Amino acid sequence: MTATAPPEPTDPVEQEPDEQIGVVRARATGIARWRPVTTVTTLLVLVAGVGTGAFWAPLADRTWASGVATGVPALVEGHWWTPVSAALVGVHPVGALLGLVLAVVGLGWAEGRLGSGRTAAVLVVAQLVGVLAAIGVVAALAATGWVWAVALAGALTGGLSTGVLAVLAVASATLGAPWRLRLRLVLVGVALVGLLFLGHLADTAHTLVLLLALPLGRRIAGPDLAPDSPTGRPGRREWRLVAAAGLLAIAVIRVLTLVVPVVGPLGNTASDSTVVETLVSVVVSLLLAEGLRRGRRLAWVAGLVLGAFYLVVGLFVVGVVIWAQATGQMDQVELVGLAVFVPNAVLWSALLVWLIAGRHAFAVPSRRRLRRRAGAAATGPEVARDALHRVGGSTLSWMATWPENRYLVHDHGADGVTAYRVHAGVAVALGDPIVAPADRTAALEEFRALAERSGWVPCLFSTTEALADAARADGWRALQVAEDTLIDLEGLEFKGKPWQNVRSAFNRAGKAGIEHRMVHLAEEPRSVVAQVRAISEEWVGDKGLPEMGFTLGGVEEALDPEVRTGLAVDAEGTIHGVTSWLPVYGPDDVVVGWTLDVMRRRQEGFRAVVEYLIASACLTFQAEGARFLSLSGAPLARAGGDSGGEVEGEQVLDRVLDRMGELLEPYYGFRSLHTFKAKFQPRYEPMFLVYRDEADLPRVGIGIGRAYLPDARVRDLVALVRS
């Protein structure tokens, strides 16, 4: 079942490919156009840097520094203009040069997104407000006797970084997913690490200005620039990548505090750890980062334990400091490494919150937990693969190899495996058990016995009609919940009026210079995989609900060596659309067909690319001898008619599933997708929910909903219903 919104219907008046390419080129040319704010700002920074010598010598060494740079001393001396003049010079050569790079790169990019007027307004206002607010906060804190604040009250600052960071924060609102979240996390990370470990006046200004700019970014950018789509939540891969990146950042900071300590808000950040201790810590962080990147549950648990440890100890240390200050015994308390430990505790606590919020993205079990009775060397997915190669399966059976599944290996009365997941106390098996037809009854009985021993309610979702008939004969009940869409490849020719849209897609692809490639994505260069990920994450990140799973795969599943991927690529190597195809095995290790999983297209790419990709796949697999293609069933979507519900419980669940389909349609487009597939003249085969008792249907409905939306929060579902 494909995880994508349906392509837009072909419109007779839509732009021709040549026109679309012209638009893309025009936008690309626009990026390189002269930007007045960036140009003027860069020239001013250059002139000021050269004129004051800020590019090669610190301003602190000059007697007239307080007349150019700003801070409490400059304002006390009556130099009211310094908040403006300081924006053009850095107090240290490194800062001055970084300010120049920020002005050219960051400001130039943001001006291309926001326009010159907004960019200039945000730059000037944010720079002045951020710097003045930081000076005010420092002056207030200095009155408390805080050593760090007292030191900053006598320091000067300069540079344009505060304003540029604010401009970047506002410009982030114009980005689509996942880049919007990524840029914001980088900005927050820069400000947070700078404040905790450096604590300069500029770092304070960065933090304060981001607290204002990020929440107001969408409003400042305006509806004409900010995407209309909701922010959505990160996809599984985004949860994993951010967690891994956070651990890498913690490891890098651990090394830097050992090599180049500085004086931060809590004192000297010099670490009291030895080189060996630091090396061990870095290795542990790297191993955990790799595990989190792969979504391993064990790495997630280890991250939780470490995060909780640092949080508890950090709170204890802060509590001791507060107690010592309150009782006047601070001079008797020795807190070695306080200045580096507490900031590290803050970073670990942030990572802890991220891991808890994205817990469902780290559900891949360890290899040890996946081992089953099929042999100590085999994992669950490997058992499923072996069974598929040996006895074959249905059009959805390859999804049994996805790592989030649990496995029941049949070795008593049946030969094969049943893949299932447990949600809300319901064991939801995915499709048919992977067994020979004669073993279906025995497999059902073993699955029922396993569920009852474990206290679960058993059901099988999206099974074939043959399995539903066998289940009914054994006392189960069955309800149609979807339809599989099959294209028979024997003798298929795209001739006649019904195939006019498909032929039009081929013609447009030819005019646009786009060709079809059927590849194994895992064997493609990183640049190709990166484009596929970008197309996929662009779709995932801008949904109003979390990324769906269960029968809906993504790029990670497409990287399986046995999965094929169709790419629509133009002459410049740009990928306009992607489809992934799961193998359908018959007995004796023979591929008899392919099932469509991922189906996504670039928003600004060739418009009829999906029709082109599916039709090209038909021809490719037909030439290889496959018998059929399955366009898969869209969840909660059917062609209509009687679903087979005979009792009141079935009728109620039927209505609930129909209502869920209606509510989810604006977000995931399942029913539009079902209609879109009809243009390929498929034949339909019903897909069933198999369950034991109608009294179980309420829990079964909840379990299936959680299987598809494991990341959904209560407020997500409430917002869905209210819509």
TrEMBL record:
Transmembrane regions listed in the UniProt entry: 37-60, 80-109, 121-142, 148-171, 183-199, 241-263, 275-292, 299-324, 336-362
Subcellular location: Cell membrane
Domain Phosphatidylglycerol lysyltransferase C-terminal residue range list: 388-691
Keyword Chaperone: no
The keyword Transmembrane helix appears for this protein: yes
Pfam short name (any one): LPG_synthase_C
Swiss-Prot/TrEMBL keywords: Cell membrane, Membrane, Transmembrane, Transmembrane helix
Record's bilayer topology term: Multi-pass membrane protein
Protein name: DUF2156 domain-containing protein
Organism the protein comes from: Actinomycetospora flava
